[in-house]
Predict the structure.
Amino acid sequence: MKIMMKTVALGSALAFAPLAAQPAFAQAVPASKVAVVDLDRIGRECNACKTANQTLQQQVQAFEARRSQLAGQLQPEAQALDAAVKALNGKAPDAALQTRIQAYQQKEQQAGQELQAQQVQIQRNQAYVGQQIQVQLQNLYKPAMQKRGANMLVEMGQTLAYDPSLDVTGDVLAALNGVLTAINTTAPPPQQQQAPTAPSGR
C-alpha cells in the first residue's frame, strides 16, 4: 500500500509539472506617445508667476540698494583709517587709532552679516515660489497628456528637437492659471517651512 501511494503521488507531481514549467508571458509595453512642455515659459507667463517674479525682483533691487548704502557708509571711514595707518610709516597705531580700527571692523562685520542674511532669505523666497508652482503643476500634467493622447511628458529644455504639435505648454499654462491665483513670495522660517500640498484631483 505504501508503494502504491508513493507511485500515485509521483504520478500526480509529474502530471502537474508541465503546467508549472510554462513561462509567464510579459504584457506588451504600449508605443511611446510623447508630449513636451516648456516649464520656463510657464514660470514666466502664468498670471500668478508674473506677479511673484515682480516681487522677487523688487527684493533683489532692495538688496542691491542696501549693499550700496552700507558700502557708502563704510568707505569714508575705511579710507580715513587707511591714510592714518600709512602715515605711521610702519609704527604701531596708538590706542585711539586701534579703537577706531576695531569699531570699523565691527561695523563691517555687522554689514556683512546683514547682507548675507538678506541674500539667503531672497534665495529661499525664490525656491519657495518655485515649489508652490511645481506642487500645482503635478496635478496638471496627466490631464494635458490625456487630452493629446500622450503617455509620456518631457520638459522642452531636455529635448534636441520636437514637432510643435507635441507642445502641451498652452494647455498646462491655461490650467495653471485656473488653479494658481496667488503665490506667497516670503518663505517661512526653515523650522516651519513645509512643502505646500496640491489640491486633490477629482
User: Anything to note?
Assistant: The CA atoms of residues 121 and 187 lie 8 Å apart.
